[in-house]
């Protein structure tokens, strides 16, 4: 999660130069956002992101050499503090869910307005998740279905009490800031607990951790 007092550092990844440069220019003109890099494919993105250490990556999916989903899986595995928002033409359920399981924090369709993209970037940087209006209902339905698929809730015995509290709030849709406020702890404590949850649940990111938690019965209240 980025420091709210500093600009959100963003990397733009798209194989179409006009989209990449146009989006970089648009985002770079916004207050509180700094575009620190760009890449034309997933393989290049991994190197650029390792060098620039952004807060948020805006990622296309269909690209040469390495697609956006595989790049996201690699990035969130190596740099779990980096948040990835997909910006793509793909809207089929399998692709959306694959992106979520790879660790994406948001999913927007190309054609989304500038305000929607900006909102998604700021939400992702704050530890939240954002999905385009046309996708939100489907994603919510999947999460709700995941909660009812488990016959009996399965505990996560390796979690500490703090991690368990944080996981319950994650499953309830709380952002990192909201979790910190509710548990009366620092944002750093929440980030550490979230990292522990990801590792112990073998989750690539927030969305996959939420899916696993809800399948086990968390977040139903």
Automatic annotation (TrEMBL):
One function term, GO molecular function aspect: DNA binding
Coiled-coil boundaries: none
UniProt keywords, alphabetically: DNA-binding, Phosphoprotein, Transcription, Transcription regulation
GO biological process, one term: phosphorelay signal transduction system
Record bears the keyword DNA-binding: yes
Residues annotated as domain Response regulatory: 9-125
Domain HTH luxR-type: 152-217
Cited SMART domains: HTH_LUXR, REC
4-aspartylphosphate modification, residue list: 60
Highest rank taxon of the organism: Bacteria
InterPro entries: CheY-like_superfamily, NreC/VraR/RcsB-like_REC, Sig_transdc_resp-reg_C-effctor, Sig_transdc_resp-reg_receiver, Tscrpt_reg_LuxR_C, WalR-like
Full protein name: DNA-binding NarL/FixJ family response regulator
Organism: Nocardioides soli
């Amino acid at each position: 999660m980025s420091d709210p007092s500093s600009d959100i550092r963003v990397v733009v990844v798209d194989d179409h130069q006009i989209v990449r440069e146009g989006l970089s220019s648009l985002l770079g003109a916004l207050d509180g956002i700094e575009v620190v890099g760009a890449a034309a494919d997933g393989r290049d993105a991994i190197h650029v992101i390792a060098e620039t250490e952004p807060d948020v990556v805006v990622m296309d999916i269909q690209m040469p050499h390495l697609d956006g989903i595989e790049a996201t899986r690699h990035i969130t595995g190596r740099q779990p503090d980096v948040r990835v928002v997909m910006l793509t033409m793909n809207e089929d359920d399998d692709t959306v869910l694959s992106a979520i399981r790879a660790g994406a924090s948001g999913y927007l369709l190309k054609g989304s307005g500038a305000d929607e993209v900006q909102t998604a970037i700021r939400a992702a940087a704050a530890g939240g998740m954002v999905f385009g209006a046309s996708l939100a209902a489907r994603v919510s339905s999947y999460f709700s279905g995941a909660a009812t698929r488990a016959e009996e809730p399965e505990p996560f015995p390796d979690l500490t009490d703090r991690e368990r509290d944080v996981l319950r709030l994650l499953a309830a849709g709380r952002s990192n800031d909201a979790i910190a406020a509710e548990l009366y702890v620092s944002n750093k404590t929440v980030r550490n607990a979230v990292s522990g949850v990801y590792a112990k649940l073998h989750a690539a990111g927030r969305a996959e951790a939420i899916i696993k938690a809800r399948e086990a019965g968390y977040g139903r209240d």
